[in-house]
Write a structure and sequence with these properties.
By secondary structure, the chain is mainly β. The protein has helices at 28-38, 44-56, and strands at residues 3-10, 64-69, 89-97, 103-112, 128-140, 143-144, 146-147, 159-160, 165-189, 192-201, 206-213, 220-221, 226-250. It has two helices and 13 strands.
Length: 252
């Protein structure tokens, strides 16, 4: 199912006039279909904007199956919104059939610019995922990996977290030249090992990889915590070119 997303911005003026970006010609049939679908509890201005958008998309009145207000406590995954609330935002789902009579969805997001000037980020992912890059070029023995800037981490040095969040994934790629044993990728938070990382079998030479994921809030961190990574070889192993990514997930 193809999903189309549209953010419709409008400003609340002194006399309750809503300013649209452009004039749209709405047929009486589409207007009536939208009014019937959204119900009488929806502001006329909001209904008008939905009518405009539906007309702009070229959706015929007979193809509209349903229009309903979206619950802010159960937003669809397709609608990623933060720093706004139901006092200044309206989200409406328009279900319709396309020209091939296949069901499609449109989310019309309408919000007040005037009320959101101080809100900061407007339309962003509820769960933001970022990646911390660690690695080492060339052969190495057990030791701390370097950051993307080429600075070696330690128990005290690493990436400083600017927000609260969780460590949700660790992945590693490296090359084993020879040896017998394994290589463990250890993640540290404030100099203390967390119970989450990678283990790679170094019993056979070649390119090795490992990746592990876990639910958010399993391993949490606070703003100001330091994340670093240590590569520990067990056995007689010759290895090189380590690339490790630590995924962090934050919600604000």
């Amino acid at each position: 199912m193809k999903k189309i997303f549209f953010v419709l911005v409008f400003a609340i003026l002194l006399f309750g006039i809503f300013a649209a970006a452009e004039e749209i010609s709405v047929s009486p049939e589409v207007s009536a279909a939208v009014d019937n679908a959204v119900g009488t509890d929806v502001e006329p201005e909001v209904s008008g904007f939905i009518q405009d958008f539906v007309s702009k998309r070229g959706i015929d009145a007979q193809d509209i199956n349903k229009i309903e207000s979206v619950d802010f406590d159960a937003l669809p995954k397709e609608v990623n919104i933060e720093n706004v609330g139901d006092h200044n935002l309206g989200v409406y789902e328009v279900d319709y059939n396309n020209e091939k009579q296949q069901p499609e969805k449109i989310y019309v997001v309408a919000y007040s610019v005037e009320q959101l000037k101080s809100q900061g980020d407007l339309i962003i992912a509820q769960d933001k995922r970022n990646f911390l890059a660690f690695g080492h070029s060339g052969e190495m023995s057990s030791g701390f990996l370097e950051t993307a800037t080429g600075v070696a981490t330690s128990l005290e040095k690493g990436y400083v977290m600017p927000r609260d969040g969780s460590i949700t994934a660790v992945s590693t790629n490296l090359e084993v030249s020879e040896g017998l044993g394994n290589i463990e990728i250890i993640v540290y938070k404030n100099g203390e090992q967390i119970s989450f990382g990678n283990t790679l079998d170094a019993g056979v030479s070649g390119i090795k990889k490992d990746y592990d994921v876990q639910s958010k809030n399993t391993v949490q961190f606070n703003a100001g915590d330091v994340i670093s990574v240590y590569a520990k070889a067990e056995g007689d192993v010759v290895w090189k070119d380590v690339i490790t990514m630590v995924e962090i997930t934050t919600s604000d």
